[in-house]
Write a structure and sequence with these properties.
112 residues; mainly beta; globular
Length: 112
């Protein structure tokens, strides 16, 4: 059974940084495509960052140059480093494994 547990969310001022973690069990992050999505109130869930099993990455235009997705195979964990945060980054952030599996989400709130 695959389980994803996100952590690292919180309240931060604009311009600050946070690092989200997604710890996986039941499947290896090294052999799966992993992604971070986010959903703001009243909006659809959107892809933020994606990393393939071969470590190719891509990002939403809105976060390019500010966010970095990384994978630690030894810890079976995927991270999302978020720098230069903006109020519009406020959302619940979800980890995704292989399209099918989702974490419970972690709230990120950026104050102006």
């Amino acid at each position: 059974q695959v389980r994803l547990v996100e952590s690292g969310g919180g309240l931060v001022q604009a311009g600050g940084s946070l690092r989200l973690s997604c710890a996986a069990s039941g499947s290896a992050v090294s052999i799966n495509a992993m992604a971070w999505y986010r959903q703001a109130p009243g909006k659809q869930r959107e892809l933020v960052a994606h990393i393939t099993s071969g470590s190719s990455t891509n990002y939403a235009d809105s976060v390019k140059g500010r966010f970095t997705i990384q994978r630690d195979n030894a810890k079976n964990t995927v991270y999302l480093q978020m720098n230069s945060l903006k109020p519009e980054d406020t959302a619940v952030y979800y980890c995704n494994l292989g399209i099918l599996y989702w974490g419970q989400g972690t709230q990120v709130t950026v104050s102006s």
